[in-house]
Write a structure and sequence with these properties.
single chain; 279 residues; eight-stranded mixed beta sheet; seven-stranded mixed beta sheet
Length: 279
């Protein structure tokens, strides 16, 4: 058994004490990415089954932060438990601070969980203290909607924008998100040709509807936008970096979806990157 497997253990039902003192933990560390979800896929699957999201989705929940002093690899380990299920751990970098904040009891904190069982393997990401509360999503409903061709043009004249030497952010840890508004810029039958594995994000401060808007380009063609909630986080960071555009990864349509997806750098990772470039 490897180090991480031993640390995170098997995915089992968790017990949250009803008698231990419970403290609501403040978001003093900013967004915190939970660790070890990949070792607890069965727990994630069971959690989403209980939430009636058997094909995955995005959900906002309350997590219990439960110290695990018996953990042989980290005496300050803090489990992240949602409902009955232990889905991961607080990162080791702040586990001692969280354990101290919880003290002798346990803590609660808001958490956003994304999970998708595509290709038969449950993949999940959980974020404690999310800076933006996004609407819940049911991937089963989205896939059924995608299977029905909407009333959209087959081909839409492209809107193009040339960005010279975009800053490459593909090495940063990211969250895969659906590109918004593609039906306004890419025709139904064009999406497989237009969608790719790389995209460029461009700030659009002159946007009349949203001064924080972040445009998404594919091979120089406008394909849509990052969600307004995420753009609100990205805008000041991109403005600080000052590049004309930002190269990121993504994906095009799959066999069961005609959506385009872009990998948006995680907030805390991007903040650290900006600090390293500007300090």
């Amino acid at each position: 058994m490897g180090f991480w497997s031993a640390l995170f253990g098997k995915a089992t039902e968790a017990t949250v004490s009803s008698t231990a003192q419970t403290r609501k933990i403040d978001a003093r560390w900013g967004e915190v990415e939970v660790q070890g979800e990949s070792f607890r896929r069965d727990a994630v699957r069971r959690l989403f089954d209980e939430l009636r999201l058997p094909e995955g989705g995005v959900t906002q929940q309350t997590a219990h932060l439960v110290p695990e002093p018996s953990n042989q690899y980290d005496k300050d380990a803090v489990k992240v438990v949602i409902g009955r299920w232990h889905i991961g751990y607080v990162p080791k970098e702040i586990s001692a601070e969280v354990a101290n904040a919880v003290r002798a009891g346990q803590g609660t904190a808001p958490v956003r969980v994304w999970a998708d069982p595509k290709d038969g393997t449950w993949r999940a990401r959980a974020t404690l203290f999310p800076s933006v509360v996004e609407p819940d999503r049911d991937f089963a409903l989205e896939r059924r909607a995608a299977a029905s061709q909407p009333d959209e043009p087959d081909i839409i004249p492209p809107q193009r924008l040339v960005v010279a030497e975009p800053m490459d952010l593909r090495a940063l840890d990211a969250t895969r998100m659906r590109i918004k508004g593609i039906g306004n810029y890419v025709g139904w039958n064009e999406r497989r040709a237009v969608g790719g594995t790389t995209y460029v994000l461009v700030r659009e401060p002159e946007n009349l509807h949203d001064p924080c808007a972040v445009l998404v380009l594919s091979n120089g063609r406008k394909v849509g936008y990052v969600s307004a909630a995420r753009a609100k986080i990205l805008a000041p960071l991109f403005d600080t970096l000052g590049s004309a555009g930002y190269l990121v990864s993504g994906t095009g349509p799959s066999d069961d979806s005609v959506q385009l997806w872009v990998d948006v750098p995680k907030a805390e990772v991007l903040r650290a990157f900006v600090k390293s470039r500007t300090s």
